[in-house]
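User: I'm putting together a small comparison set for a docking exercise, and I want a reference complex before I start. The sequence is below, and the ligand is adenosine-5'-diphosphate. Could you produce the 3D structure with the ligand included, as structure tokens?
Assistant: Of course. I'll restate your input first, then give the structure tokens for the complex.
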Amino acid sequence: MQGLMQDVPLTLSLIFHRAEQLWPTKQLVTATTTGKVRTTYGDWAGRVRRLAGALDDLGVSEAGRVGTFAWNTANHLEVYYAAPCSGRVLHTLNPRLFAEQITYIANHAEDEVVFVDRSLVPTLWPLVDQLTTVRAYVVFDDDPAVELPDDPRLVGYEELLAAASPASVDRVTDEGRAAAMCYTSGTTGNPKGVVYSHRSQVLHAMATLAVDCLGVRESDVVLPVVPMFHANSWGLCQSGPLAGASFVFPGRDLSPTAVADLIVDEGVTLAAGVPTVWLAAVPALEGRDTSRLRAVLCGGSAVPRALAETYRTRFGTTITQAWGMTETSPIATSAFVRSEHAEADEEVKADLRATQGLPVPLLEVRIAEPDTGDVLPWDGKVTGEVQVRAAWAARSYYDDDRSAESFTADGWLRTGDVASIAPDGYVRLVDRTKDLIKSGGEWISSVELENELMAHPKIREAAVVGVAHERWQERPLACVVPEPGQSLTEGEVLDFLAPKVARWWLPDRVVFIDEVPRTSVGKFSKKTLRDRFADVLVSPTSEGE
Ligand code: ADP
């Protein structure tokens, strides 16, 4: 017997209409170099309809890829809806990638048009002759001071909209149709394309609305510092309009002062960004009125326990850690304190918040032996590769023959992350498969060592990598950035670690560096550190002495 319920396709048009109808006066604020621009969902909705018409005028084909090369702005949010709701596919390009990667991605996705911030035209323009499928570049005027090349392929965004008529934003009836694409930055080889469907984005938005997940709500003022070009801005551009939250878009200035000013001046209640953003923002927030900031969403890399505690004790704000990846839309787990621990002391709660958390509703996780695929128990001890199944997890990459290695025979996504899962569901990531340190056949978790190191009051940041060792194949090396004005010795660092970790986990060396190198999306670039210090244990007089 079949259910007798309506078969309503889950498309982004549902979110668009809800925002247009229910929240027309809610604010969308964008910070620009010349001041803040304030619009509303009502205004936004009218522009989305015109933009749908403009995409027709530009001749963008049905299902044509609409690239964006832009910071977080209300204009960007217009493309986020006009493209998919008019049947096209939004493709967010990451301006921080290397030129060859950007070229590869735009050509592989076959972008037909690219919407670009004026401030980013100088980054994109040297590549245009290699972008073989793009016919037009539409410029968001985020900085009038930036000179534009005199080229007929460049079109002004406002002129384009002014000349267009509103068009239908209800063109998608098949919820399985592609809505958006995002390429994973790919630390090795070319980036891989993840293709979200309307259905996956709507379901992901619904799941993240749960209060024990991101819990975005109508009364929120959301500041997405996490870029709209990176892992889909954690779905906030769907969950925000669905819930009715206002937005504060930071534009291109993501400096700690700019972020802190927006939080304080705009009464931000919910902010989202990677740990480095929140670490850097601490001094800028100190002593200011952060009373409206109820939660900070943090993920993309492990959230140091000490960082979350700083926000809790100094600003009265909970840092909610979430784990996920581009392939999981991206939210897969979120770390909230289960009610049975509500009365536990703060130390216990801090430990739970420092895990990656529980799987979000409707998403399943398991851990498996990477080589055999054997599924491992949830005992909080055994570690294995994390695998995921959900309506918003990828089942394949776009036109990529490397797909097979990332999915199991029974269709689960192999994340490449290594974790244990406690009997009550807390996932604790110990590493990425490629960052694990294997010493004499035993694994050492760089993430755990980093967490311990970053709790030292004189340590600003620390990254631990495995480097070659004659006897043990690999041993841990701690790369430490001291707090400004502080000096530390290797012995001091090791003494601090000694009572906290197993003896054989203690790094063989501690080197002091000015900053931890980052990837294009702001994560620790462990590969750079491994290359830089490759010989440090073999020839102990090399760099970092
Ligand atoms: P990439 O960084 O490879 O470009 P993503 O941005 O999709 O791709 O990052 C996904 C990866 O980031 C995860 O597989 C995991 O290794 C790491 N990550 C994300 N969130 C967390 C977290 N809360 N704790 C630890 N690692 C995380």
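The two ends are 73 Å apart (CA to CA). The first helix runs from residue 12 to 22.
User: Thanks, that's exactly what I needed.
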